[in-house]
Amino acid sequence: MQTTADRLRAHGLRATRPRVAVLDVLDAATAAQQHLAVSEVELRVRAEIGAVSTQAVYDCLEALTLAGLTRRIEPAGHPARYESRVGDNHHHLVCRECGATVDVDCLSGVAPCLEPSATAGFTIDEAEVTFWGRCPDCAVRLATAAS
């Protein structure tokens, strides 16, 4: 099994301590079905390695995303979130209230799994879908508040 440092190098990146820590944090979060905002990544990385600047975390996330090791999710009205589940063309459920984000597999086949009605000459290789609604906790809270 490849180490985090090996994965970084395989994608053309130096395996710096902050990059390893950021990718490790995102791997653990992704395994727990969590999609982390930059502030959450920063807190967890600091818990792992101590001092790290906010700018270093942003730089690491940008490098990891450009290298294809992480994915940036940008739900409207919510901070960007990151995950390390990449390359499988899955989609997301986002709670309108709390911003909780959950993965949902594409059921229509392989990437891009959805076909647009027109492509304007583009070669389509991925589809990104965001489903909006309320998570179970927020739905219960709102129903209770309305009663």
Automatic annotation (TrEMBL):
- Its primary localisation, in coarse terms, equals cytoplasm
Annotated localization: Cytoplasm
A Pfam family (short name) is FUR
Q: Which InterPro entries match?
A: FUR, Fur_C, WH-like_DNA-bd_sf, WH_DNA-bd_sf
Q: Does the keyword Translocase apply?
A: no
- What does the UniProt keyword field contain? Cytoplasm, DNA-binding, Iron, Metal-binding, Repressor, Transcription, Transcription regulation, Zinc
The text of the family note is: Belongs to the Fur family.
What protein name applies here? Answer: Fur family transcriptional regulator FurA3
Gene transcribed to yield this protein: furA3
